[in-house]
Every structure is written in C-alpha cells, then in structure tokens.
Write a structure and sequence with these properties.
Layout: H1 7-19, H2 46-50, H3 58-70, H4 74-100, H5 105-124, H6 137-169, H7 176-183, E1 186-192, E2 203-209, E3 213-218, H8 226-241, E4 247-254, E5 263-270, H9 273-291
Parallel strand pairs: 3-4
Antiparallel strand pairs: 1-2, 2-3, 4-5
Helix pairs in contact: 4-5, 4-6, 5-6, 6-7, 8-9
C-alpha cells in the first residue's frame, strides 16, 4: 500500500526520530510565543504556504483561489480522486472486518473487488459538480482518463490490505480491533485544527501512522516544497497533541501505460529545524501580502 513502510524505512524513521535536534521555540506547542506565533490575524490553506505559487497582491491570491476551485486542473482532479480511492479502500476494509470478523485476506480482497465499480462511479461522479457553467465534454474526458488510474490503484491497494490482514491473522490475532490496528497501522484524512499556527481550521493529514509519521501523497513531479506540507502538518499536530512529530514521508504515486501496478516512491525525511524555519518564513511572507 502507498503508506505501508518496509523494514529499511522503519529503521530510517527510528534513527531520524532519535537524531533530530530542534529548539523548543520551533515546536508546535509554542504557538503563543516566539517565531511560530502567527504575525497577523489571518489563516492560510496549507497548500498555499507549501506551494511554489507567487502572489504580489491580495487580489491575485483571491483570483487564484476562485479559479482553482472553479476550474481545477486535470492533475488536481487526478490527485483528489486517488486520495479518495485509497481512503475508500481502507474505510471499506475496516468496515468489512468489523462486520464479518476474522475472515481471510482473500475474502476481503474478493469483497473489495466486488464493490469497486460502484465505489469508483460514486467517487468520480463529483468531477464537474458545483462549477458555474459546467464543463460538458471536458469533465467527461477527465472522468474517462482518471478512471483507469483509479481502477489500477483500487486493485493494488485492495491486494496490499488483504495481504497485510493475512499476515496479521497468521499471528493468531483474535480481536477485530487489534487486527485493524496491526494490519492497517495508520489513520487516513486525520483532521487537525491549524489555526494555532496560522493555517486553516480543518486540515486533513493524508495519513498519520502509529510511528508518529505524517504522510503526504503527491502525483506530480518531486519538489522540495512538498516537505513544507509535512512540516505544516507536524506543527499543527504538535500544537494540538503537545507531542513531538519528528518525521514526515512524501509518497510519490505515478503510472506507466504498459504497467498495471502503480509506481510508488517514498521519501522519509526529518522535520528538522531548518524546515520549520522555512515554513514560518513562507507563512509570514504570504500572510503579509494579504494584509497590505
């Protein structure tokens, strides 16, 4: 699965968690004082702070928000659809286990493949909704294009979750709760209030693992700015949980035409002080544009 870590990645996380050295004033729970305190009484979406877009005025910023919401790009729609596909597979897998108990991974895989078409239809039906003037054939083209990738990812994620369930069942687990905690060791779309550090009220972390790792799923080209997203999530979580979040993981998801299996590359990184400083600089600079 996109968020399943291998043994080397787990060792890397343990090492980074031990080695990271951060001044207390750059921890999320210090949002009332020091550099982390927002300089203005405004909030920003995390993707604005972590993005590479540049604004010279409040008007440009507002025009960008309106246009991106009214006319999302094909890449934005693809990314959103893949996020939803993974979340739906995990949600359905958990409900299956609670409903039917400790059955085999093959039973779970059969169930997930059986409901795939209906769930994918439901997931893709939102493309084009809520836009003034509609998009007609453009939205239909997007749906047809995106469907093939969502279908591929659905089957891959279903197989990975089912295999993980079988590995845990082989240990003699007799509790549904424990099975889910061990076989699917993360929470998707973990919601956190970002207002303490100047971000939106309802941030949703793509995945939050039991290793206290924040995950960010990306479908485009690699960018150093992506680490600002995991840093923002970590700071928001620290402000709420008052527990250190030291490690992030960027998950790059892509597809090739001649391969059914998606390509997944994970970059585990320390959420070190330099990233926290960079995040604060970007936040403060973009906030200043909005108030002047």
């Amino acid at each position: 699965m996109a968020y399943f870590l291998d043994e080397e990645e787990r060792k890397s996380i343990e090492r980074l968690s031990r080695e990271v050295d951060i001044d207390e004033e750059f921890r999320g729970w210090h949002y009332l004082d020091g550099p982390l305190r927002p300089p203005y009484n405004v909030t920003l979406p995390l993707y604005i702070v972590a993005g590479e877009m540049v604004f010279s005025s409040k008007r440009e910023y507002e025009e960008y928000l309106i246009n991106s919401r009214a006319n999302p790009s094909r890449e934005m729609l693809l990314g959103s659809s893949l996020h939803k596909a993974i979340s739906t597979v995990v949600e359905e897998a958990k409900m299956f286990i609670y409903r039917y108990g400790l059955l085999s991974g093959s039973d779970l895989y059969h169930y997930l493949t059986k409901i795939r078409d209906g769930k994918v239809d439901e997931l893709l039906s939102s493309i084009g909704k809520g836009r003034a003037g509609g998009g007609g054939g453009r939205e239909e083209d997007h749906r047809t294009d995106i469907r093939q990738y969502v279908n591929r990812l659905w089957l891959y994620e279903s197989l990975q979750v089912a295999s993980s369930v079988d590995r845990v069942l082989a240990q003699g687990i007799e509790s549904r709760d424990v099975l889910i905690q061990k076989a699917i060791p993360f929470t998707l779309e973990y919601e956190v209030d970002g207002r303490r550090i100047g971000l939106s009220e309802r941030l949703r972390v793509d995945a939050f693992g039991h290793f206290m790792v924040v995950f960010e799923l990306k479908t485009g080209k690699r960018s150093e700015h992506h680490r600002l997203a995991t840093t923002g999530y970590a700071l928001a979580l620290e402000s709420m949980l008052e527990h250190p979040i030291n490690v992030g993981c960027i998950v790059y998801l892509s597809f090739e035409q001649d391969r059914t299996t998606p390509l997944i590359r994970r970059e585990v990184h320390a959420i070190e002080e330099s990233l926290r400083r960079w995040f604060i600089e970007e936040r403060d600079r973009k906030m200043e544009i909005l108030v002047h």
